Amino acid sequence: MTRSEGLLEEILERVDIAEYISQFVDLKKTGSSFKGLCPFHDERTPSFSVTPEKKLYHCFGCGAAGNVVGFAMKYHNLDFVDAMKMLCERYNIVFEQRERPRHYNEILEIHKELLVRSKQDLIGNTGRHALEYMLKRGFDRQILDEFDIGFFPENFDISFLRKKYSKNSLAATGLFYEYSGRLKFKFAGRLSFPIKDTMGNVIAFSGRSLKDDVKPKYINSPTTDVFEKRKFLYNMDGAKSKMKEEKTGIVVEGYIDVMRCSQAGIKNTVSPMGTSFTKEQAALLKRYCDDVILVFDGDFAGKKAAYRSLETFIDINFFPQVVFLPEEDDPDSLIKEKGVSAFLEKLESRKDLFVTYINNLSKYADSYQKKLKIIERIKSLLIKVKNPYLKDEYFAQTAKIFGLNEETLRKDIEFSSHKNTFNTIEKRGGKLNYFCEENFLASLFSLSEDVIDSLLEDMNEEYFSDENFRKIYKKIIDVLKNGDIMHVLLNDEEIGEIASNILITDFGDEDPYAVALKNKNKLRFNYLERMKKIKINELSQFKNDPVKSEEILEKLNKILTEIKELRSSVLEV
After folding, report:
1. How far is CA 476 from the centre of its chain?
2. Beta carbons of 107 and 226 less than 8 angstroms apart
3. pTM of the predicted protein model
């Protein structure tokens, strides 16, 4: 078990979740739990419940759920590590970061020294032309200092680093290359844009060429022990407080666009540092704001980037609005040439990204077959939409834009959604497979990791017909492989809330292991029933092939024998 998982376990044991949450929510004891008004949505009747015995909170109104770390993350807009750190400080628990890669601290120190040196060079003789370049573009000294803009001269001397850090540590930053046995600096002769994490640590650099004939225009730090581009947003450290205050985040395409917006007083602006928007970046935004506005160029590349991000946002139940600027404009040029009011006016014209995407697709529906294909694409997205009000709106918009009967579309999508969620739901003894899968997974959270491992060793993901439960099962397998504790899953961005919700299941005085075993048998039984149907279908397909038929029949007989053996035990579930 790594230190972070051990620390999480210690926090869960030592922090009374009801006592902690009662500092922010007026809780009243009802039986073995506490109830109050949910802090995450408006309500008049208490639907927020805290169960100390299970170390969980759960809102039956909005579905928010998790452990004490999850509550701290959601209530205070913190990431996992920062939430643990805050709880450790409050409850006098010794906090240690998870085990760092070998060069982690040295890379951060090297970055810090490079930042200081680059800022000195920008205002010195060697960087005069770089400073003038930024001033001519309309940026003042204050904004350059706010974003820690610097310059690395052509003859950048790295001897000050070589005296303090090993060659391996410098190489680990990805900022150097070796030539004739000597390390050279990749960013020499370039303007420096430091990239920071949410805590303000410099984790990477982007360097811009000041010469038109030098390509590429920008070079960036590669993936290192401290930096993965997909997990960060440029200026998130500077924008997060304003995002939280205004409940809105603005996403633009470039570093210069971010700076221009910030200088104009629009401080809640970030950039994804590339055209691909990742789930990690979308989740980072969701932690700090309720709404997000994508401001992308109106050319083909800008629209493609925006539409490509849609599914990423839908997957985390977050629905952005979008503004496409005229092809000749970007936020930098628009604000510079026409003023901040022109940019704010564009923001006022923002539209829902999903609806904009539907409208865009409708342009290509110039034949019946193309129309059907496009509708299938939209259906695949609509099925993922969890918010019922938004789903209703998207139903109506899709039907209107494509000239469809809304009720027919709704029934088609609801049927597809039902089929995807439950796959093969069969009633046996008054129970649905869905509940069997839920009960099995819920029981695991009350067992030790070694017992869970033994229960799962002869199972596979095909036992689960529900897509979300299949995801949880796969995550549990990963947790066991990594030697982690099960409660780590409650803070997982993808399945944390789902996992938290199933933990509310109450088995009364029944032994969790007995519950797990019974439901495991039921899962196996249902899986075999599905396999039986598949083999029967295969028999009909290969009825004229005696060799293949005999092979299928042999497998079918084994399945039928096991079904018969399991039948009596599953009837009790």
Report:
1. 18
2. yes
3. 0.62
